[in-house]
TrEMBL record:
Lineage, opening ranks: Bacteria, Pseudomonadati, Pseudomonadota, Gammaproteobacteria, Enterobacterales
Subunit (UniProt): Homohexamer.
Annotated protein name in UniProt: Phosphopantetheine adenylyltransferase
Residues at which substrate binds: T10, K42, L74, R88
Gene behind this protein: coaD
GO terms of biological process kind: coenzyme A biosynthetic process
Enzyme Commission number, as recorded: 2.7.7.3
Length: 159
């Protein structure tokens, strides 16, 4: 049984939906690693350093959460961190289909690795980082969806 879990993602940027999943996860696990990925298949808006900084500021109140940046396979990170549990959030059926593919691949690569799926809260079920970026780019108000420091960064990019 693991008391430590990894909550991985690109988090570009971290949203209130991500923080909701993370906060709820702290009620289940004694230690959570928020692992922010460097994904060569994505073109992030913010650097890995900035995404880590945003996350540290946004979850400073969660004392059992550690934030790291990483690249490479998630199974290797789990082995390095000596845990066999991943946390993933699900907003809808599309998320489930995508996450199920990841789960199946991870299970083939490391059968000891388990994935725990948490459903998004009603308030955050429509949130995605890419949708928030699109709304901001087109002059919409994204303040209700983002931690304060992330929103401030957005206002400097999209006044």
């Amino acid at each position: 049984m693991s008391t430590k879990a990894i909550y991985p993602g690109t988090f570009d940027p971290i949203t209130n939906g991500h923080i909701n999943i993370l906060t709820r996860s702290t009620l289940i696990f004694s230690k959570i690693i928020l692992a922010i990925s460097i994904n060569p298949n994505k073109n992030p808006m913010f650097s890995i350093e900035k995404r880590v900084e945003f996350a540290k500021e946004a979850v400073a109140h969660l004392k059992n959460v550690t934030i790291i940046g990483f690249s490479g396979l998630l199974i290797h990170l789990a082995q390095e961190q000596k845990t066999n549990v991943l946390i993933r959030g699900l907003r809808n059926i599309t998320d489930f289909e995508n996450e199920n593919k990841r789960y199946q691949m991870n299970a083939k690569l490391d059968p000891s690795l388990e994935t725990i799926f948490l459903l998004a809260s009603q308030e955050s079920s429509c949130l995605s980082s890419s949708l928030i970026k699109e709304v901001a780019q087109n002059g919409g108000n994204v303040e209700p969806f983002l931690p304060k420091t992330v929103f401030q960064a957005f206002t400097s990019i999209y006044p």
